[in-house]
Structures are given as structure tokens and as C-alpha cells.
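Example noted here:
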Amino acid sequence: MSLTIRKATKRDSKAILELVVGLANFERLEPPDGKAKRRILRDAFETKRISILVATLDRAHAGYALYFYTYSSFLARQTLYLEDIFVYEKFRGRGVGEALFRACAEEAARHRCGRMEWSVLTWNESAMGFYERLGARRLKEWYVYRLDSDALSRLNRKVQLS
């Protein structure tokens, strides 16, 4: 078994998009459309707004991690935010997910981040157990809020009319 974790290159584009669709299917969500797929590749390889690690097992794309940096004003340091981590089902249980996660933690340390954060779907108990085994703790005092694009449009219309 030859497991490799590396920074994605443009040559990985097709595989990355297939992995993103695989994650969407796993999470029971709508996969990105063509425009969104083009933005992902642009933001990874042109604007560099996001970073992607790919895992290959015996030369086959097995998984990926997508992350970016936010900032903690209280720590006065960056935070590595892990947006996605996904491993195809046929490659699970072979250390791929842990290797991707540890590579993200190494990136956070290399960039002198004050912390690393991510979200987990409430039904994904397997993921919660995985993270907790690696030393992560679930925050009970925080709730995640979101404005989707429709809500942003409504809010911005209100702001513009004021």
C-alpha cells in the first residue's frame, strides 16, 4: 500500500471535482453545478483563496481536504478552517482520513495558527468519534449561523433601501 498526501495541482482538477461530488452525495446535499466547479478550480489554482490536499492510494485518488485561513482576534493568529475532508468509501479504514487530517494539522502548525476548526454534521457520529480519538473536542457553547445567497440578497436589499 502506497499512501501519499500532497498539495493538489491543476492536473488533479477532474479528480478533485469528482471527490467534491462524492462528498455531496455522502452528505445528501446537492453537488456543485458547472459554474461552482469552475469557481472551486479558480479559487484553488488561480486566486489561491483555498488550499486542497489530495490523498492517493496506490496512485488512485482516494480523498481530499479543502481548507483556508481565517483569523482569531483574541489569539492574534490565523486559524486553519477545514471546510471539507472526504475519503471514498472503498478507501476508508486504511488510514487515508487520518493522514489527510494530520497533514492539515501540520499545515496549521507550519503557518503558526492558533487553532484549527471545522464543522461536523450532527448525524455523522463516525466523524465525531474519529476527531475525538485524535484529541479534538466538540464546542458546546457555540452555534453555527448561516445566511444563504437568498438571505444575503434580501438583507442587502434592505440595506440598500435604508
In short: DSSP finds five helices and five strands in the chain. The helical segments are 13-26, 34-45, 96-110, 125-133, 149-161. The longest strand covers residues 60-72.
